[in-house]
Amino acid sequence: IDWGGVFGEYDMASSGDKLKLHVQTEPLALTYGENEHHFSKMLMALNADKTPMPFLTNSVFRFRMAGARLIDEGEPLFAIQQGELDANSKLTNDSYAMHLLASAEALEISESRYAPVGLKFSLDNLHAESMSELIGLYLSKGGSNSSLGLEHLFPLISNGTRLSLDYLTLGLPQGVAQLQASLAWPAKPTSASIVDIVSAMHSLLKFSVPKALVQHFIDEEVDAMTADALETTKGFDAKERKKKHEDQIQAWVDQ
């Protein structure tokens, strides 16, 4: 173990209404056998204020990591460069909102590399009182959601809730892929039936994929079809093999 230590500051008001937390860890290296875990300096900060609603806080969370690398039995398992995470929650009148923003300059999982990586997620206009009651019910059941039905979840969207994946960005060798999605409900929905909830929902999905990636998948599929065609036409003469191969490719295109 090679570690420079950890430093922190914790401050909570005597009333319990406010919390401030700041933690900084120095670079850490763990090595045992062919396993290696390396972590750069990390910073974490949390500011949280109690609200009139039980279990709900106005909070701001930040996390920064210059890099990390995990090696398992001599093989690269995971690595990240310039990782950042920001999350916040806020109570405004009778609505509660939660936002998440995450990014990395580069992310490596096994032998796959993604650069850059970005995510922005938001959940707005949750009915605050219903949210507070739902958390209380969940905790009273020992963390089990088996007793939570639609009648408990429906009030959450009564303020006109919007759930949004503002963007998911993934850098691939062939280019950058992006995804956007959202679900939104009108304020004061009149029915708790699943049919009416789905009917009233407005959904949106957008995505973009690099042309080179699409071509890559098409080429792989064609190569697989070609291999199958050659395998199934063994014993045919050249003309018959060519005809069989063309028929299989055409059948795949028609699908």
Describe the structure.
The protein has 255 residues and is α+β, with helices and mostly antiparallel strands. Helices cover 25% and strands 49% of the residues. The chain has helices at residues 128-140, 150-153, 194-200, 211-232, 238-254; strands spanning 2-3, 6-12, 18-25, 28-32, 35-39, 42-50, 57-72, 75-92, 95-104, 106-109, 112-114, 117-127, 162-172, 175-184, 202-208. It has a 15-stranded antiparallel beta sheet that branches. The model has no long low-confidence stretch (mean pLDDT 85).
Based on the model shown, name its key terms:
single chain, 255 residues, alpha+beta, 15-stranded antiparallel beta sheet
Task: Give a quick precis of the structure.
With 255 residues, the protein is an alpha+beta fold. The protein contains five helices and 15 strands. The protein is 25% helix and 49% strand.
**What is the CA–CA distance across the termini?**
57 Å
| Poorly predicted runs of 5 or more residues | none
Helix and strand succession? Answer: EEEEEEEEEEEEHHEEHEHH
β-strand amount:
over 45%
DSSP summary: helix tally: 5
User: What's the shape?
Assistant: flat
Q: Give the biggest beta sheet.
A: 15 strands, antiparallel
Write the layout of secondary structure elements.
Layout: E1 2-3, E2 6-12, E3 18-25, E4 28-32, E5 35-39, E6 42-50, E7 57-72, E8 75-92, E9 95-104, E10 106-109, E11 112-114, E12 117-127, H1 128-140, H2 150-153, E13 162-172, E14 175-184, H3 194-200, E15 202-208, H4 211-232, H5 238-254
Antiparallel strand pairs: 1-4, 2-3, 3-6, 4-5, 5-7, 6-7, 7-8, 8-9, 8-10, 9-12, 10-11, 12-13, 13-14, 14-15
